[in-house]
């Protein structure tokens, strides 16, 4: 916390009461190239201020509705709400499938599974985006559903698959990429890192060099453009017009639901310790959002979620975040693809229990 707060200097936050909200079962701050210990260490519970916090625990899941399918048992003698909590806490029975591999595989209840068939992406999108042909332009329909998956590469596959289903002309927008150097040898760098190389770079949370869009497709903003007007990182928008230099659309969901907004190209500065330069990419800060990365879905509430796991999750809290986006068990489906010797109703549930045990200082 480096927000300056006026008030007595000897008191925490200048004597102001500051409320922090969170759920340590969810994904933790991403620290690149870090292991379990560093990731947990980056959490607020490891801050020197943590002993001064007073922890209040919420007891009711307000997202879940009171439907019959939430009250029914989903497995292990638990109803849906209890199952989600047990999954997040790491209390579900686990097993290991191969020697020397983690023993954190859990069974997904049969009622929540769909099967891969010949084309897994087609299977899961047909299930989650049922009645797509009739409703693909409806903001209510689109804003209530998503396919979530651990990696951005698979997100792109899902989005490309859905884009093909939309009738109409596809418009391509290409970024203009350049390097910002803190060195005196730009010529050398220009030869080592030509524009084609810069164009090929992909980063989490950064639009690609090439973006393909159609009118009536949903996109997600990747940067805060104007929070007072609802244009925040994560805002979803249904495109109504694809101009040369602007994209026009209507916000889907939230307090700015249906508001018309205009998105310009912006310059994104991207630093990555793999490269000795700052990449400056001028592009629309958007990405199609039929599919989204599990980490990006954190915070969303949806009616139908397809959790697509062509590979298991790779980090703490991802499976819990994916499973807890919905209002009811009926809205949640998993499609799991495992190596041959592991049944398709098992997947990894990574829980760093030290991230939330013994967190109550006050
Ligand atoms: N007081 C309330 N009364 C009725 N519904 C509520 C209330 N609080 C939250 N909800 C419902 O629960 C959903 C989740 O709320 P919210 O996004 O504020 O929770 P959150 O703790 O940030 O969730 P998460 O961290 O899991 O994304 C909301 O979409 C809303 O439907």
TrEMBL record:
InterPro entries: DNA_helicase_pif1-like_DEAD, P-loop_NTPase, Pif1-like_2B_dom
Cofactor(s) for this UniProt protein: Mg(2+)
Highest taxon in the source lineage: Eukaryota
Residue ranges of domain DNA helicase Pif1-like 2B in the record: 196-242
Limits of the DNA helicase Pif1-like DEAD-box helicase domain: 9-95
Known EC number: 5.6.2.3
Protein name according to UniProt: ATP-dependent DNA helicase
Reaction(s) this enzyme catalyzes, per UniProt: ATP + H2O = ADP + phosphate + H(+)
Family under the similarity heading: Belongs to the helicase family.
GO molecular function, one term: hydrolase activity
Entries under SUPFAM superfamilies matching the protein: P-loop containing nucleoside triphosphate hydrolases (SSF52540)
Pfam family, one: Pif1_2B_dom
Organism: Linum tenue
PANTHER family (UniProt xref): ATP-DEPENDENT DNA HELICASE, PTHR10492
GO biological processes: DNA recombination; DNA repair; telomere maintenance
């Amino acid at each position: 916390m480096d927000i300056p707060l006026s008030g007595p200097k000897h008191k925490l936050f200048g004597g102001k009461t500051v409320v922090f909200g969170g759920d340590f079962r969810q994904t933790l701050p991403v620290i690149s190239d870090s292991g379990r210990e560093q990731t947990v260490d980056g959490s607020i519970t490891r801050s020197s201020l943590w002993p001064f916090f007073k922890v209040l625990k919420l007891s009711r899941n307000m997202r879940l509705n009171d439907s019959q399918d939430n009250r029914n048992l989903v497995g292990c003698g638990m109803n849906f709400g209890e199952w989600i909590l047990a999954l997040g806490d790491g209390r579900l029975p686990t097993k290991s499938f191969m020697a020397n591999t983690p023993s954190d595989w859990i069974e997904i209840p049969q009622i929540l599974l769909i099967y891969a068939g010949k084309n897994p992406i087609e299977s899961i999108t047909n299930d989650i985006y049922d009645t797509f042909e009739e409703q693909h332009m409806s903001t209510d329909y689109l804003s209530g559903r998503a396919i979530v998956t651990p990696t951005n590469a698979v997100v792109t596959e899902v989005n490309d698959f859905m884009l093909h289903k939309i009738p109409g002309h596809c418009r391509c927008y290409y970024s203009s990429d350049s390097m910002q150097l803190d060195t005196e040898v730009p010529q050398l760098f220009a030869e080592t890192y030509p524009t084609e190389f810069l164009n090929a770079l992909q980063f989490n949370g950064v639009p690609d060099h090439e973006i393909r869009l159609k009118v009536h497709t949903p996109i997600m903003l990747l940067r805060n453009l104007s929070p007072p007007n609802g244009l925040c990182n994560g805002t979803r928008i249904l495109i109504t017009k694809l101009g040369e230099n602007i994209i026009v659309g209507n916000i889907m969901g939230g307090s700015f639901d249906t508001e018309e907004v205009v998105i310009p190209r912006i310059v994104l500065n991207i630093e990555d310790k793999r490269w000795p330069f700052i990449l400056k990419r001028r592009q629309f800060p958007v990405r199609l959002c039929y599919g989204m990365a599990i980490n990006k879905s954190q915070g969303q509430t949806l009616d139908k979620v397809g959790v697509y796991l062509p590979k298991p999750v790779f980090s703490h809290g991802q499976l819990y975040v994916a499973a807890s986006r919905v209002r009811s068990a009926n809205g949640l489906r998993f499609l799991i693809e495992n190596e041959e010797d592991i049944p398709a109703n098992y997947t990894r549930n990574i829980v760093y229990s030290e991230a939330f045990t013994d967190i109550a200082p006050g």
